[in-house]
């Protein structure tokens, strides 16, 4: 029995470099309403995230690295129209260290805020956050690196940026386990803590704000949501020992922060008793899909085989079992040794889209898209798979107001084992097809 509705294997055997505009390899229908397009010049360009602007155009966000092996990577911003045609493209970064993209959002006053990591070394990342006009003109910039009690620089991984009433919060993790209130573990056993950095609109840091939380020996924040002037919800994962679990396995994790980022509530967990569940994405539920928080991630069994894991929480959290509307694996075999990122999005009509990486179909890594109903059951009987003959990695998925689906990610062009990586944008029908 087939495990997929159908598979689109995009032929990416392109032997020439791309120039930041559309190529002959694009797959378009006659009215350009659905397409696959690739972006970038010489070297590798990855697609991480995008935002739709009020006029229907898109800002694409990723990372670009030129061909020389010793070159540094930079942030890569591309503005395209509704048909994916390039309007402009820009790069931002240093010639001395790598900058890698993580997340981009549009603010209420129509500016862009982007976050990522800047590398001092392979084991020492700092947080990089920037604001831009919608034309890609930089407004403000900040770099944040933490130091432990011994004065040593630590490794900070920025995962996402969220909007607050007066600025932004960056969620991620840090190897600096000295920053949290009342450290519970020695440095030898405590590997990483959840990080939540708060900034004003001008990107100066908030004073009197606790920047980490860490109840386990490995903790990470994936997204922070401001729910009132004095209350914040943090969503991520931890290996804290959960009641009823025989060992401290990884589980989805959520908790509340007060006005100075000191935990002011209990904490909740989603996950199986023995397997590891790593959260990597969050979608705010709509009225059509049920208010609350939809969490997506990956679960691993004892043999390290992976599956998509999802959970749905109520809008107002009590930090106990009453919060959980459902939690479950989707029973979709993804394969082993995959990037752990997922992307979820609440449909404008009902249900949720879930995007993940997979390589159980063949020896290649592909994009996998499925849709769930409001109760967590599968809206699509079988998932859809998109990919070529090389290594393809997802970025994010969104649904447009007209019901079409847009996905950004990275696909390998040229030879499967040696071709360049290109930022890839796909615009699909509401049921995930390139043609109506």
Key terms:
Methylamine Dehydrogenase, Chain H, 436 residues, mainly beta, 5-stranded antiparallel β-sheet, 5-stranded mixed β-sheet, single chain, 49% strand, 0% helix
CATH second-level architecture: 7 Propeller
The number of distinct β-strands equals 30
Task: Give the CATH class.
Answer: Mainly Beta
Coarse shape: globular
User: Percentage of helical residues?
Assistant: under 10%
What fold name goes in the CATH topology slot? Answer: Methylamine Dehydrogenase, Chain H
Give the helices and strands as they follow along the chain.
EEEEEEEEEEEEEEEEEEEEEEEEEEEEEE
User: What would you call the structural class?
Assistant: mainly beta
Number of domains: 1
Order of strands across the main sheet? 1-27-26-25-24
Name of the CATH homologous superfamily: YVTN repeat-like/Quinoprotein amine dehydrogenase
**Strand proportion:** over 45%
Uncertain runs: 9-31
| Radius of gyration, taken over Cα atoms and rounded to an integer in Å | 21 Å
Oligomer kind:
single chain
SS field, number of helical segments: 0
Overall mean confidence score, pLDDT: 89
Note down, in words, how this protein is organized:
The chain is mostly beta strands. The protein has one domain (7-428): 7 Propeller (Methylamine Dehydrogenase, Chain H), CATH 2.130.10.10. The protein has strands spanning 7-9, 27-28, 35-39, 44-52, 58-65, 73-80, 86-92, 99-106, 112-121, 124-132, 138-144, 156-163, 167-174, 193-200, 212-213, 219-228, 231-238, 251-257, 263-270, 276-284, 293-300, 306-313, 324-329, 342-346, 352-358, 366-372, 384-387, 393-399, 405-412, 421-428. Strands 1-27-26-25-24 form a 5-stranded mixed β-sheet, with no helix packed on it. A 5-stranded antiparallel β-sheet has the order 2-3-30-29-28, with no helix packed on it. Strands 4-5-6-7 form a 4-stranded antiparallel β-sheet, with no helix packed on it. The radius of gyration is 21 Å and the shape is globular. The two termini are 26 Å apart.
